[in-house]
């Protein structure tokens, strides 16, 4: 057990708990994008940064284990600046606004990120409709890796692969032959976890195309 203070609220945490768990226990909100509680934490997006009293730099809440006596500040200005910048960059690469109701849209709203500050390269629309039930809109992918982990860890199907780096980072299904020629079992775990609806049920596509 460890005692952690989050924004002045003291919580008792079990061994193995993270600062994100502690923030939730204290009733505090921490933004996340690459985190899904059904998966092992990945620590890729840096949206969940929080301040620590004894650390000169903010730390990712989703991968930092609780230690006795830690004092956490969820809205530390430096941490929130980084989170906002990460979300702004993600938005700036999308060809349109994220669909209302997606995790990305909700996080952007809570962080008060409305317009991307850095207009630059924007992903071209590239849809893959070869699967009978699932649509893959590559241009909406923010490379959080959640779909790949859902497919591997939750379903054990290994149908998706992370590809490329930086602006080119994306995912491929079935070595880019499409879901139907992959090991996909149509469980929908990838669509369920995707924070941008880059993977979604085909039936939901019309509402996604609205900008
Ligand atoms: S398709 Fe969705 S879940 Fe998969 S990496 Fe891209 S944004 Fe993340
Ligand atoms: S949610 Fe913690 S690094 Fe992405």
Report on this structure:
The chain has 211 residues and is of the alpha+beta class. The protein has two domains: 1-122, Roll (Ubiquitin-like (UB roll)), CATH 3.10.20.740; 127-208, Alpha-Beta Plaits. 24% of the residues lie in helices and 17% in strands. The protein is built from six helices and ten strands. Strands 2-1-5-3-4 form a five-stranded mixed beta sheet, with helices on both faces. Strands 6-7-10 form a three-stranded antiparallel beta sheet. The protein is globular, with a radius of gyration of 18 Å. 38% of the residues are buried. The model has no long low-confidence stretch (mean pLDDT 91). The structure holds iron/sulfur cluster and FE2/S2 (inorganic) cluster. FE2/S2 (inorganic) cluster is lined by residues 32-35, 43-48, 60, 62.
SSE map:
Layout: E1 2-6, E2 9-13, H1 19-25, E3 49-52, E4 59-60, E5 71-73, H2 77-92, H3 103-110, E6 127-128, E7 134-137, H4 146-155, E8 160-163, E9 170-173, H5 189-193, E10 199-201, H6 205-208
The chain binds iron/sulfur cluster and FE2/S2 (inorganic) cluster (FES).
């Amino acid at each position: 057990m460890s005692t952690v203070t989050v924004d002045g609220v003291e919580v008792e945490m079990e061994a193995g708990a993270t600062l994100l768990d502690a923030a939730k226990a204290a009733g505090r909100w921490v933004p996340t994008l690459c985190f899904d509680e059904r998966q092992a934490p990945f620590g890729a997006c840096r949206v969940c940064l929080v301040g620590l009293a004894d650390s000169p730099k903010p730390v990712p809440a989703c991968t930092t284990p609780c230690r006795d006596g830690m004092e956490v500040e969820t809205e530390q200005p430096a941490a929130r600046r980084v989170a906002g910048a990460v979300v702004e960059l993600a938005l700036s690469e999308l060809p349109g606004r994220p669909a209302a109701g997606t995790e990305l849209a909700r996080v952007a709203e809570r962080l008060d990120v409305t317009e991307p500050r850095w207009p630059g390269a924007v992903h071209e629309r590239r849809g893959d409709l070869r699967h009978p039930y699932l649509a893959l809109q590559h241009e909406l992918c923010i490379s959080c890796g959640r779909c790949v982990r859902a497919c591997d860890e939750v379903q054990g199907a290994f149908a998706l692969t992370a590809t490329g780096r930086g602006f080119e980072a994306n995912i491929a299904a079935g070595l880019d032959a499409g879901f139907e020629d992959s090991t996909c079992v149509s469980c929908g775990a990838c669509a369920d976890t995707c924070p941008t609806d880059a993977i979604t049920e085909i039936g939901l596509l019309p509402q996604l195309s609205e900008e």
